[in-house]
Amino acid sequence: MSSNKKYWKSVEELDVNSSIVETLRNNEFVEEIPTDEFLGNQEVLSSSSTTRRDFLKYVGFSTAAASLAACEGPVHLSIPYVLQPEQIIPGVADYYATSVFDGFDFANLLVKTREGRPIKIENNTIAGANFSANARIHASILSLYDSTRIKEPKVGAKNSTWAAVDSKIKSSIVEAKAKGGQIVFLTNTLASPSTEKLIADFIGANPNAKHVIYDAVSSSEALDAFETVYGERALVDYDFSKASLIVSVGADFLGDWQGGGYDAGYAKGRIPTGSAGSKKISKHIQLESNMTLSGAAADKRIAMTTANQKQALVLIYSIITGSPVANNLDSAFKAEVTKVAQQLKAAGSKGVLVSGVQDKNAQMLVLAINQVLASESFTTSGTRQIRKGSNEKVAQLINDMNAGSVHTLIMSGVNPVYTLAESKKFAEGLKKVTTSVAFSLKEDETALLSTVVAPVPHYLEAWGDLTITKGTYSLTQPTIRPLFNTKQFQDILLSINGIPGTYYDYLKGFSSSIIVGSSWNKVLHDGIYVGVIPAAAGGTADYNGAANALAQAKPVPTELVLYTKTGMGDGQQANNPWLQEFPDPLTRVSWDNYVTVSNADAKKWNLSNEIVANGGLNGSYANLTVNGVKLEKVPVIVQPGQAVGTIGMALGYGRKASLKEEMQVGLNAYALYTGFNNVQSVTIEKASGEHEFACVQGQKTLMGRGDIIKETSLKIFNTEDAEIWNEKPKVSLDHKEVEASSVDLWGSFDRSTGHHFNLSIDLNACTGCGACVIACHAENNVPVVGKSEMRRSRDMHWLRIDRYYSSETTFEGDNERKDNIAGLSSSLSTFNEMENASDNPQVAFQPVMCQHCNHAPCETVCPVAATSHGRQGQNHMAYNRCVGTRYCANNCPYKVRRFNWFLYSQNKEFDYHMNDDLGRMVLNPDVNVRSRGVMEKCSFCIQSTQAVILQAKREGREVAKDEFNNACACSAACSSGAMVFGDINDKESEVAKLAESERAYHLLEHVGTKPNVFYHVKVRNT
User: Which of 232, 279, 738, 845 is the most buried (most CB within 10 A)?
Assistant: First the structure.
């Protein structure tokens, strides 16, 4: 009931005739280590065959080996301050509150700085700061130190000065007015009240000027629908914590739908609460085509095409409102969707429906359904202001440019030559614009074709303000002086408006009319101000007309569904190696985009994946054609859960301009984003060749042991004893069966005094978002190894998020089928059917890092005592002692140790951020940069736990309750609350209370390692 399901991580595991998966499972290191001058050149790097055992024979398994490994450490002489800044204490971190919005991602942040260098993004947890950093925002700290940023302004493709830029823009404006040409500001959604006012003031004084807002990934249909009903161009900010039933039709609200940021509210409803025997969690039903993070978290997932999703919305609308509208929903789904609608109607105000279908009529029905339900999760107050783009106005601008009526085009925060499907038409129009100005961080595709290139500072170098949701006001403040000769877009706006002073002065004066009852210094300190939150008026429209129009939607033979990947988003940070190396939570592929297909369609089109001898994943190529545009040789991933008749592909890849060669990966799917519609009719055909993926889905498996993931149904959870659904493993002691945790192979010392650290991970709250993975990279100087090394199973992530599939919709279904198995042949055939990848699998995410075992198997086999245990529960690594025998990795049942094959820092073979002085500015000085030949792994961020202890000691107090939770990078980054870190000896701490939960269990408890990481059984509301 809890752990007797069969789980699998890759489609290849389901092939009962495949031996390669079993071979790789039992082979910890799939390739031999090159030791002879393996950093000299690429030929030697790939050709050496000297084994580690031979190497140790040569040097002698003694102090000589340790000395050889230790002698590599470089010596750096530090240069002290001549005049030390008053605000900076060397060795002590400072934190600055700020907020970010780059046109796609947004969050309320704290920025950690060391000696004037921003080195890490943290979440601002003050009241009112409701938006946490996702993986991309955590990685944005590295984009600050991107060596390919524009370093000075350019006019006519030549280096210039800001005075020349200012003069050029002003003279162009005068000329445009004289000739009657248009002056157009083309920007992303700004969400900045002060910037919007500066633009509005200019337009007020120049009737020939206008402002066009362009979002690379459009939400225009949802905006149009809300504007029609409520008279305001905004998006609803849903509160999923108030819902007992969530129905999503094509909305990946745990991903990037409407900007994301819904996971915290969602997770609150997913943790079982209430009295024993009657605990409740919200129920989540997902209708979608691509497998998404939201679909992975759902209790029930119905895989269907977008055409069927539209018809499903019409049917749900008819049942909820009692207004019968004929629909053309496929008969295979009618019974299920009818049941969903009836459950939603019964839930009433505790129900909510959301949709990502890009159709105004569909979005109108969403508003109507939630109005009838009087949903508590749906409110028109505090609307989101982070999407304002208009597809219609962008299309008109392109026509105007090609007609020659646009004289001056000033662009900020946009790259239409890359992101527009009609990019060629835009580029042709750009040639007809007299003066084009691109305000940009990078000399991107659009900047290369512009008359003037104006480099802007990174948001960590800039001032600004934001209204992310109506009624709130956030400030952005610089945390470092500008690294290059940059200037903010707003400073140019001030200049052309004839307003003296700096943008800082203007912003400070402007904000006084908004932050009523507060002060500039307080808002700057807090990072957020919450004022009056008005509700949008109105609420009526022709909903029946919208339903009838939507019901006329016609299906297409094959749908291409475009989406944004968790790591790459809209592609702004394509030059960020942390994000390129981040494995996608679902496919577990990094350094690529690809087309996802269902198993049934893959067989029909003769497409396939296979795991090869070195553990790498290979796949077929396909050619895609949409509206006459052809993408050739697109790699293919067979994705369990992909709706038959649909394929998926991620936007944000395929960029070339201002990217290092290593980051120029993937194909530009924006070319297929015709009419800003993420669903297109596509033809697909197999292409020749085979693609090599960097995929970790078949790597570091936990050897098929059955008590890794534990889960149960809500019914069983409430009606059965915990020993049924969270069975404790038993072992034999003196011929009697006893709980494994009661037996020790080693003597234990008293850990009841002082601090003892534990990490709690709730599988119900984990959405697989990966913010913890990037935060760990930033905090612990984890190197980037590149696609080739990732493919060889040599990734260096200290924290991985395993993704497991299981196929039955209910546990009862699993158990009934297994109980009826008779004999070996029946067993093989039944399990193969149950795990058929063409079915709609359930998904579970499980973060796995070093478990910091109190009886650690790694410690007993290390010949040089490089790994040892601390009294506070952390498993330590002394890198200078490590000689790289890898015995510890072989002896670790959790496969969490990483062997550092190469010197990744200052090495031309690994040309990422650690290969230049600017990129190395992101390194945390409290964590050493490891050299080659050592083992490394999670340390429970020991540098941070000690900093908390020392801070309390310096202030003469005890460590405050739960003060340790923000010390561990992963728990501090976890916005859903799935990870909680703390001192288990503090009985009032949250982690100590969680350890007493009947849902708590340890991985592989029967092994007797006694980990300091514990998990909570996943409960599904099925």
Answer: 845
